[in-house]
Amino acid sequence: MTSRTGAARAAENTTPEHTRSAGGRVLRRALAAVGAAVAALVLWAVAVPVAGIEVTAYRAGTLGPIGPVSIGASALAMGLAGWALLAVLERLMKRPGPVWTSVATAVMLLSLAGPLISTADSASMFVLLAMHLVVGVAVILVLAPTARRR
Prior knowledge:
With about 150 residues, the protein is mainly alpha-helical.
C-alpha cells in the first residue's frame, strides 16, 4: 500500500470537480449561443417556408428579405457577445450575475426597436420581434445561472 500525502489527496479530490464545473460552464455557455441561433432559425423556418411569410426589413435604405444566414449569424453573435460580457464582468466584479442579467435584459429590450422601425409590414415586424425575444430570453436564461462569484 502506497502512502499519499495530504496535498496529493486534496489535489485528487478537488481537481476533477473544478475541471468538471469549469468545463460544464463553458459547455453551457457555448450551448446558450448555439441554442439561441437554432431557436431563431426554427422560428424563421416556421414563419417563412411553413407559414409563407416573407420577412423583410430596410437595410442601408433598401427593403430586402432577411434570410437564414443573417438570422443565424446575428443570433450566434449576440450569444457570444453575452458570453464575452459575462466573462469580463466576472473578472471585474464580485457578483457579476445580477449586473449581467440587468444589462442583457436592457439590451434585449432595446433591440426590439430595430424591428419596430425597420420593417415594412406587420408580419415581418411580428416575426422579427419574436426572434429578438427568443434569442434574448434563451441567452439570458441559460447564461445567467453560469455567472461565477469571486
